[in-house]
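pipeline stage [seq->struct] | target=UBC core domain-containing protein | organism=Paenibacillus ehimensis | residues=222
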Amino acid sequence: MNGQIVWDHFKELQCDFPNISLSYENDRFYVRGEIQFRAQYLNDELVDESYLIELELASSYPNDPPISRELEGRIPNTFHMFPDGMLCLGAPLAVRKTFLENPTLLEFVKTQLIPYFYSFSYKEKNKERMPYGELEHGAKGILTYYKELFQVASADVALMFLYLLAFQKYRGHQPCPCRSGSVLRRCHGSLLLELQSIQTTKEFQYEFKYCFEAIKKERGLQ
C-alpha cells in the first residue's frame, strides 16, 4: 500500500468532511468519523443527515474499494448489509467498477456511501419506498446484477457464468452457458475476460459460494 496516496486521499476527503480521522492498525489504514450530508432526489424530500462511519483500506488500495461500516448501529442488518456487518452498497463487482472510474476516498463517499445512507434515511422517513427503487437483498441482488450484466433471464445461468469467473473455467471453445448455441469466445467470452481483469478469482469465489449456498437453502437442498 502506498501510504502517501492514502494520506493525500484522506486529506482531500477531510476538506469536505472535517470530523474524520486516519489511523493505521494491523497493517491496514482506517478512516473513522462523521459524514454529514444534504441530499435530494429529483423533487423528493431534502435529507439532512450525519452518520458515524468506518472505512477499512486493504493493502491493495486504491486498486480495491474501501470496506465500509456504520458504527452506531442505526442501520439494521435487514437493510443491505452483509452478515459480517459490511455495508452492501451494491453487487461487489458493480461497487468495484464504479470505484475504479475515479479511485479516491472522496469519490467513493460521494458516489456510493452517501447514496446508500440517503436511501436508508429516506426510507426510514417514508416507510413504503426507496427514492430510486430498491435492489433485492443479498444473494438475490448479486444474481440479479449478473443476470442484467450477461443479459440472461435465469439465475442458474448467471450462477454458471459466476462459476466460470470464480474457478477460471473459461474455455473459448466450450458452449456458452447462455444457451445461444454459440461457443463462448463468440458469445460472452469477451465480457468474461473483461471482468477477469477487474476482479480477482478469490472475490468471484466469495460471490459464487455466497449465491450458491443461498440458492441451496432457498430450494431446501441442505
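stage status: PASS
auto-comment: The chain has a mean pLDDT of 88. The chain has two domains: 3-126, 138-218.
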